[in-house]
Specification:
It is a multi-pass membrane protein. The protein is mainly α. 76% of the residues lie in helices and 0% in strands.
Length: 421
C-alpha cells in the first residue's frame, strides 16, 4: 500500500471509521439477503422479495431531502452513533418471530431513511479528521472497504442462512451494526455541530435547494451521479450477457466481479502513483477511459475479451479521488453534512435507476449493444458535465491569481486606454 494511503490509515480516528464501515456493510448485505429469502418463503412473491433489496435505497431520497440537516446541526459522532443504533434496533425488530412481511419492509424503509444522515455525518467527520489532501484518499479507502465487504457480505449472509435461522442471522446483523456504532462512539472525538437556521425539515430541504443552486457543486453532483449510473449497466445485464456468450453461472460471476475488482485496483493506483494535482489533471481523461472499453461490446465480444474490457475500463474509476476533492472544495463548510448526505443518497438512487434503465433498454436491443450504448452515454456525460467543473479547479496564475485560462491573464495585462482612447 502506498505511503499516501498509509498516512491516512495512520490516523487513529480514521481507522475506527474504516472498521465501522466494514461492519456496517456486512450487516446491511446480510439483512438484504436474509429478508429477500425470508419474504419469498413467506409470501411466494418475487416482487416483495425484490423490494427487500430496493427499499434499502429508495428511502434515501427522503432522508437526504428532509433529515440531512441533522448531520450539520448536531455533533457528527452523536449522529453516527444514534443512526447505527437505530439501524441495529430495526434489524433486531425484524427478527421477532411472526413479523409480517409488510412490517419488515416498513422497517427497511426506516433503515434506508437514516442511511444518508449517517453517510453525511461520516463524510463530515472524515473532513474534520483528515486534511484536504487526505480527504479523497480516505473516501477512496472507505469505498474500497465497502466494495470488498459487499462482495464478502453475500457469502457471509449465505453462510449465516445455512448455519442459523433467519431470525438468528438478523440478530447477528443487528449486533454488527450496534458494534459499528459503539466503535464510532468510543474511538472518535466529540466535535460540536454547526449553527443551522430554521427547523429540521425546512433547513434540510433548503440546504438541498441551495446545493443545487451552486453551479460548481451542481456540476460535481452530475459528474458523480450520471457516469456512475451508466457504469453499472454491465453488472445489471451480467446474466443475459453471459447467456448470449454461451456461458453459465461462472461467467455471470466473472462479469459481476470484473467491475469491482477494477475499481478497487484503479483507486489504489490513482492514490499510490499520482499526486493530488496529477489526479486533478487526469480526472476527465480517466473518466473517459472508464467507458472507452465498453465500446468493444459493439463487436459482441467473447467471454475473455468482455471480462478484460470491463476490468480495464474500471481502472479509470480512480478519477473519483479527484472528484471527491472537488466535492470538498465546492461545499461551504456550514453545509457539509447536508451536501454529503445528498451526494451519497443521489449516488445510490442513480445507480439503482441505472440498473432499471439497463434492463429496460435490453428489452429492445441485445444486451451487448446496451452495454455499448452505456459506454457512449458515459463519454457524452463526462464531456458535458466535466467541462462545467473546469473553472472550479483551475490553477491560479502567479501573476493575476485568477483561475487558469490564458485569456483571463492576458486580458488583465492589457494597458487601459484613457477616456479619449
Amino acid at each position: 500500500m502506498s505511503s499516501s494511503f498509509r498516512r491516512v490509515l495512520s490516523v487513529p480516528e480514521f481507522r475506527v471509521l474504516f472498521l465501522a464501515e466494514i461492519l456496517s456493510v456486512l450487516a446491511l448485505v446480510a439483512v438484504q439477503i436474509t429478508l429477500s429469502v425470508l419474504i419469498f418463503e413467506r409470501t411466494g412473491s418475487p416482487l416483495l422479495s425484490a423490494l427487500a433489496f430496493a427499499l434499502g435505497f429508495l428511502p434515501q431520497l427522503v432522508g437526504a431531502s428532509l433529515l440531512s440537516s441533522v448531520a450539520d446541526r448536531f455533533p457528527a459522532r452523536r449522529v453516527m452513533v444514534i443512526a447505527q443504533l437505530v439501524s441495529g434496533a430495526v434489524m433486531a425488530c425484524m427478527a421477532v418471530p411472526g413479523t409480517p412481511a409488510w412490517v419488515m419492509l416498513a422497517l427497511l424503509v426506516v433503515s434506508g431513511t437514516v442511511a444518508p444522515v449517517y453517510s453525511g455525518a461520516r463524510s463530515a467527520a472524515i473532513a474534520a479528521v483528515l486534511d484536504r489532501d487526505g480527504f479523497p484518499l480516505g473516501r477512496s479507502l472507505l469505498r474500497m472497504a465497502a466494495q470488498t465487504a459487499q462482495i464478502a457480505g453475500f457469502s457471509f449472509g449465505g453462510v449465516l442462512m445455512l448455519a442459523a435461522s433467519p431470525a438468528a442471522a438478523l440478530l447477528v446483523a443487528a449486533a454488527l451494526m450496534a458494534v459499528s456504532g459503539l466503535l464510532v462512539g468510543m474511538g472518535t472525538r466529540a466535535r460540536p455541530g454547526r449553527e443551522v437556521a430554521g427547523g429540521l425539515v425546512g433547513s434540510s430541504w433548503g440546504g438541498v435547494r441551495e446545493a443545487f443552486r451552486l453551479p460548481r457543486l451542481r456540476a460535481v453532483f452530475l459528474l458523480t451521479w450520471v457516469p456512475a449510473s451508466l457504469f453499472v449497466w454491465s453488472e445489471a445485464l451480467a446474466a443475459p450477457l453471459a447467456a448470449g456468450m454461451g456461458g453459465g453461472p461462472m461467467l455471470v460471476a466473472m462479469l459481476l466481479t470484473a467491475g469491482p475488482v477494477g475499481t478497487v485496483a484503479g483507486e489504489l493506483l490513482a492514490g499510490a502513483l499520482l499526486t493530488a494535482e496529477q489526479r486533478r489533471r487526469w480526472m476527465l481523461p480517466l473518466a473517459c477511459a472508464t467507458f472507452v472499453p465498453s465500446l468493444l461490446f459493439l463487436l459482441n465480444p467473447g467471454p475473455v475479451l468482455a471480462v478484460g474490457a470491463l476490468v480495464v475500463g474500471a481502472l479509470g474509476y480512480g478519477y473519483t479521488l479527484a472528484l471527491d476533492a472537488l466535492l470538498l472544495e465546492a461545499t461551504p463548510e456550514e453545509m457539509r453534512g447536508r451536501v454529503f448526505s445528498v451526494a451519497s443518497a443521489g449516488l445510490m438512487i442513480t445507480q439503482g435507476a441505472g440498473f432499471a434503465l439497463a434492463g429496460a433498454v435490453a428489452e429492445f436491443v441485445p444486451p451487448h449493444l446496451a452495454v455499448a450504448l452505456a459506454g457512449m452515454g458515459g463519454l457524452v456525460a463526462v464531456a458535458v458535465f466535466g467541462r462545467r467543473t473546469r473553472p472550479a479547479h483551475g490553477r491560479r496564475s502567479p501573476r493575476c491569481g485568477r483561475p487558469s485560462g490564458y485569456w483571463r491573464c492576458r486580458r488583465s495585462r492589457r494597458p487601459r486606454r484613457g477616456p479619449g482612447g
